[in-house]
Design a protein that fits this description.
Elements: H1 5-14, H2 27-30, E1 37-42, H3 51-58, H4 60-73, E2 78-84, H5 88-101, E3 104-108, E4 111-112, H6 117-125, E5 140-144, H7 145-155, E6 162-169, E7 175-180, H8 185-192, E8 199-203, E9 210-212, E10 224-229, H9 233-239, H10 242-252, H11 258-261, H12 264-267, H13 274-282, H14 290-293, H15 303-308, H16 315-328, E11 351-352, H17 353-360, H18 363-366, E12 371-373, E13 381-385, E14 395-396, E15 403-404, E16 409-412, E17 422-423, E18 428-433, E19 436-441, H19 453-458
Parallel strand pairs: 1-2, 1-5, 2-3, 6-10, 7-12
Antiparallel strand pairs: 4-11, 6-7, 8-9, 8-10, 13-19, 14-16, 15-18, 16-17, 18-19
Helix pairs in contact: 1-7, 3-5, 4-5, 4-7, 10-13, 10-16, 13-16
The structure holds iron/sulfur cluster (2 copies).
The site of one iron/sulfur cluster (SF4) has 15 residues, from helix 12, helix 15 and helix 16.
Length: 474
């Protein structure tokens, strides 16, 4: 299919496609740039998340087609598909499509954080993106595989109204499913059957996800919901008040520099040294204030906090705090323009996913393969956030009481701002508008088909016993 760049960008913008891997950056803005290398990111490195692997197994053709269409419409000359070597079925399914469109396969090791754009670009092009920069600085653009599927659908005029995600952790029936945007976490967790009462919910993966309430709706960037005991170390590391985090840093950091030695960004050659930030945070007068600015280079991957530190300290939380302060003062990191070379020891210091899961205390969930469902029973009300992407919130174009149809635009990107359009995933009625649009499903017009008998069983049986995938069409 041949589209010119302007038409492609316009279709993607109309459909509200944003980075589905977590960043939420509008895809139309990314693809309006000039780049020679276009990379499909299928790394999915956060432990317990399975949504990209399920998507790649089922939609390899659309992913490859999206890459080829973007290549034809832009200046890109080389296409790459990067995924973990261990995804045998994905490689088997996508091989003919890679050959058809001349896409270069890139086999990734099973390490964390393989899916970080900086890591992917390093693996594909052999170069480090400079500090505080983006892949475009190396003439490249990267899109997550779900974003590519959404781009392919946008070309056919279909907006983004569904999300692939995994629900896992302390639940009887962990699953991966395609769900309407706006589905509350509580609805999905109820379907998964929590095995404990006092649990915390993490939106995203155990390394980079955030704690959310159970009314948190699925957004275009939601990769999953993890159910963990309140006392789990992953939960505690996120809920400890920052004043205690700082006090612990001052009293317990022994300057072993383990956090720096295996920091992925340090290993890529960036001038971030979290042990120095810890020292500066504990004794602000002992090091130049400039040290703090290096916190702006932290990806918040969590390796220092969850894997490296023998004292259970959190350079990540301190970096995050510093980044918020700098953002409030509009202070940015300025790269001096020098070439960045990765550290020689990088290859020996990367963290295998299984070792990471052991250290995180989630190894008992790792070998349970969540069952896949192409559809789930929808909730009665969807809560659709107006800010589920980078940039400004979308502006509602509907009113309370108005009936809306599936795929109809309900909020649009503000004039002159970065953002994304939002569409209704269902036929329904708008019942409330604030910073979210609540849509009550019209029972008579349910978009989703009745559940099949086998799908009903999902709600009754123990999925731990079922390792095989369901091969539903999505
Ligand atoms: S969270 Fe820690 S390990 Fe990760 S980039 Fe930041 S300082 Fe480095
Ligand atoms: S790993 Fe922990 S104890 Fe060692 S320097 Fe870093 S924060 Fe301090």
């Amino acid at each position: 299919m041949n589209l010119d760049s302007q038409k492609l960008v316009s279709l993607i913008s109309d459909a509200g496609v944003v980075g589905a891997g977590g960043g939420g950056f509008p895809a139309s803005i990314k693809l309006a740039g000039n780049f020679s290398h276009y990379i499909a990111n299928g790394a999915e490195c956060e432990p317990l998340l399975h949504k990209d692997i399920e998507l790649m197994e089922r939609h390899s053709c659309e992913i490859a087609e999206a890459l080829a269409i973007v290549k034809n419409a832009t200046d890109s000359q080389k296409l790459y598909f990067a995924a973990k070597k261990k995804y045998e079925k994905v490689w088997q399914n996508i091989k003919p499509h890679l050959e058809k469109y001349g896409i270069i396969p890139v086999y990734l090791d099973d390490i964390f954080p393989a899916g970080d754009e900086f890591e992917i670009v390093k693996e594909v092009l052999g170069k480090t993106i400079p500090p505080a920069n983006i892949p475009l600085s190396l003439d490249a653009a990267v899109n997550n595989v779900e974003t590519l599927l959404n781009i392919r659908r946008a070309i056919d005029g279909k907006p983004v109204v569904k999300k692939w995600l995994t629900v896992a952790g302390e639940v009887e029936n962990p699953f991966t499913a395609v769900v309407p945007v706006g589905t509350p976490a509580s609805h999905l967790i109820k379907l998964a059957k929590p095995m404990i009462e006092n649990y915390a919910i993490i939106e995203g993966g155990p390394m980079m996800g955030n704690i959310v309430n159970d009314d948190e709706p699925v957004k275009k960037t939601t990769a999953g919901f993890l159910v963990l005991p309140q006392e789990h170390k992953i939960v505690k590391s996120r809920t400890m008040p920052i004043k205690y985090v700082l006090r612990l840093a001052a009293s317990a950091c022994m300057q072993c520099r383990s956090c720096t030695d295996i920091c992925p960004r340090y290993l890529l050659g960036h001038p971030i040294e979290p042990h120095k930030i810890m020292r500066a945070a504990a004794m602000p007068i002992s090091l130049p204030a400039e040290i703090f600015k290096n916190a702006l280079l932290c990806s918040e991957c969590g390796i220092c906090e969850q894997f490296a530190c023998p004292m259970g300290l959190s350079p990540r939380r301190i970096n995050r705090e510093l980044k918020m302060q700098f953002a409030g003062e509009n202070i940015r990191y300025q790269w001096n323009g020098e070439e960045v070379l990765s550290r020689e020891v990088r290859d020996f210091r990367r963290i295998p996913s299984r070792r990471l899961a052991e250290r995180l205390g989630i190894i008992k969930y790792i070998d349970i393969h969540p069952e896949f469902f192409a559809k789930i029973e929808p909730p009665e009300t969807l809560i659709i956030s107006l800010k589920q992407h980078a940039g400004a919130p979308a502006e509602p174009v509907v009113k309370v009481g108005q009936k809306v149809s599936t795929d109809e635009m309900i909020a649009k990107v503000s004039e002159g701002k970065i953002g994304a359009n939002i569409h209704s995933p269902v036929d329904g009625k708008v019942i409330e508008i604030n910073d979210r649009i609540s849509i009550s499903l019209l029972k008579m017009l349910l978009h989703f088909k009745m559940l099949s008998t086998s799908e009903m069983k999902f709600y009754e049986t123990d999925s731990k016993k079922r390792i095989a995938h369901r091969q539903d069409e999505v």
